[in-house]
Amino acid sequence: MIEIIGLTKQYGKFTALDHLDLHIGEGTVFGFVGQNGAGKSTTFSILATLLAPTSGTAFVNGYNILKDPKKVREQIGYMPDFFGVYDQLKAEEYLDFYGASYGISVNERKKLIPQLLELVNLTDKRDSYVDLLSRGMKQRLCLARSLIHDPEVLILDEPASGLDPRARIEMREILKELKAMGKTILISSHILPELAEMCDVIGIIDQGKLKAQGSVAEIQEKLQGAKSMMVKVNRNIERAFAFFEDNPDISEIERHEDGASIQFLFKGNAEAQQQLLKACIMQELDLVSFAEIETDLEDVFMEITNGGMES
């Protein structure tokens, strides 16, 4: 669906984007995470044909951004990180204006606009003036605007920026609906946990370079070379501790203050993890729980952007 090849953008001696290569399959929700100034908005602006690259190119649904910019624009719905609204326009009029700009007929717009307002939970605000809406409502209206021509690809630059917790949840639920509709979605943020639960794949960019790509679990496993595990036993914790300590695939083993839990890093794959569990049962370790610990996403992000991993 989206193919980025050697994409580079320079401003004089400053390199904003450094030979970016990326493939995003159809129907994928791809999260682009990086600090402010890392290259996220530059990438999105180039994909939206609003900015010319210094070198390299990209394809959106088979169309070259340099040779077929008009066709590319037909494929995408672009929501920038900063967008303007028009004073003295109501929400419905705002969408009607953009629908007309895309050449959508009056009759089609009359059917489409109520559906979009319902999708973004703004039906009751259809007659409200845009400049009087809250920031979260404006964000959702801008998302509806980017959907007006039913694009196959959505490019959303920091859509949750500046939103309160409730507005963030509302935005996340709308994105889940769009994912269920089969849209290919590129979404950026400088906050990794904000993207993790809604994205199929995450790419971490730093100083214009892609540092890591994959699911959160894959990125952590590559980074640490092991999975963080937690085991809780009902009794005989000393015997359990000795059992895990003797396993060559286990490191950094520690006993928790509760007197029943043991945490360690396990470098084996899923099959080896299954064999370890079977061995625990065979040894009658009296397990209460045996589980992988959820990734500390902030730690992962900081370690990668501080040079802990190269793509």
TrEMBL record:
Transmembrane segments: none annotated. It comes from the Bacteria. It holds the Pfam family DrrA1-3_C. One of its GO terms (molecular function) is ATP hydrolysis activity. Keywords: ATP-binding, Nucleotide-binding, Transport. Residues 2-232 form the ABC transporter domain. InterPro entries: AAA+_ATPase, ABC_transporter-like_ATP-bd, DrrA1/2-like_C, P-loop_NTPase. PANTHER family: ABC TRANSPORTER, ABC TRANSPORTER, ATP-BINDING PROTEIN. Belongs to the ABC transporter superfamily. This is ABC transporter ATP-binding protein.
